[in-house]
Amino acid sequence: MNSYRNMAAFMSPSTEQNMGTARLEMSNRIFFRLYQCANMLHKTGSRAVQEEGLTTQQWAIMGALSRPKSASGMAVIELSQYLMVTRQNLSAVLKRMESAGHVVIQPDERDRRSRIIQITPMGREIWENKALPKIRAYYEEALDEFSLGDMTHILHYMIKLLENMKKIDARSGVQDE
Amino acid sequence: MNSYRNMAAFMSPSTEQNMGTARLEMSNRIFFRLYQCANMLHKTGSRAVQEEGLTTQQWAIMGALSRPKSASGMAVIELSQYLMVTRQNLSAVLKRMESAGHVVIQPDERDRRSRIIQITPMGREIWENKALPKIRAYYEEALDEFSLGDMTHILHYMIKLLENMKKIDARSGVQDE
DNA sequence: GATTATATGTCAATGTATTTACATAAAACA
DNA sequence: TGTTTTATGTAAATACATTGACATATAATC
After folding, report:
1. How close is the nearest chain A Cα to the Cα of B128, in Å?
2. Which residue of chain B is at minimal alpha-carbon distance from A166?
3. What residues does the HTH marR-type domain cover (chains A, B) (predicted)?
4. Integer distance in angstroms from CA B112 to C1' D24?
């Protein structure tokens, strides 16, 4: 794919501003690819667990709730911060998962504003015995020809990018409290 | 953030399957971060261009249409393949952009099934004079402390990941034709 | 030339993402 | 102790993502 074309996906060529041209072109390509990766993860990742009645978002939630440290459940606000989605979005997704029988939503005994989310036995069964094997197969295909070194590097850069985005979020938005 | 906890975000610890444990843990962390990066790009990127009445999706579209090679417009199917979104999704987004006066949608003279999308003078004005300076500022913040070498590496890995996801898409889905 | 297969765009249903708003509860402050 | 500020979850509106379905147009095949 023409690198010039890729560069222009997010913006057209322009006179140099604060960023040098090379740096600007590279920035643009990075965010364009991140945008495409996100769409492709949604499309192909959801297909991988479609037969289990799951989506990529629900797989993230079930993964979080299945950890040993989450055995006693997680508060909605904890889970929303952990996943980096708004509590309004998470609330709606959890309602659907509750209707499907995958999780239970219970009042928090220590704070009446709060709700505690736990995976149900049925949810755990579906997660561990049906979804996880397919997720592993998906990872193998998606990370084909990635060495452990490659994986270490991409993860490092994603964490670094994420730290910067968190800072932008903190400065620009109404902070989720 | 506890790496063990990150690993479990997408799945709980498990006995080794086809993937070694180290590789599986790393896979999980990569996709979890990709998922978070996507959400944060959506949230912080949309805020960056909110005053222009744009979203990250529209910024991708306007970037694509602003390239010199797209001066005569792009067909819907071309644009959907370029952005890696479905033509059904793109159709709806373009309708809103047409209503906002940012693009025009015209019949393709050579193929009556096809529609050609072009950015309007008003759209180009908003894009070049209002959105682009904010997008550059966003890139500077988001890629703070990334060297050109870092940027080259993360881009390389994202392209590689994207190639793998395209292969999964080709094998598993009904191919968009 | 007629028929079949494929391509293209739109519609509808559904899930997921944000923001703003509101109600209730807890924390902080005077 | 009372008041103010902040926290938490849900509701509503809107934008964007998918899939399946359908109508029309073009390409391929016979």
Report:
1. 8
2. B40
3. 27-163
4. 9
Q: C1' nearest to CA of B114: which nucleotide?
A: C8
Q: Cα angle vertex B25, ends A102, B155, to 5°?
A: 105
Under a CB-based contact definition with an 8 Å cutoff, are residues A151 and B26 in contact?
yes
Q: Domain B53-169, what fold?
A: Arc Repressor Mutant, subunit A (1.10.10)
| ipTM computed for the complex | 0.87
DSSP string, A32-48: HHHHHHHHHIIIIIHHH
Nearest to A8 among B30, B66, B144 (CB): B66
Q: Residue B9: its chain A contacts at CB < 8 A?
A: 60, 63-64, 67, 82-83
Q: Per residue of chain A (177 residues), what is the pLDDT tens digit?
A: 223 333 344 443 344 445 678 888 899 999 999 999 999 999 999 999 998 889 999 999 999 999 999 999 999 999 999 999 999 999 999 999 999 999 999 999 999 999 999 999 999 999 999 999 999 999 999 999 999 999 999 999 999 999 999 999 988 765 543
- Listed as ranges, the nucleotides of chain C within 7 A of a protein C-beta are 6-13, 15-21, 24-27
pTM: 0.87
Domain A53-170: CATH class, spelled out: mainly alpha
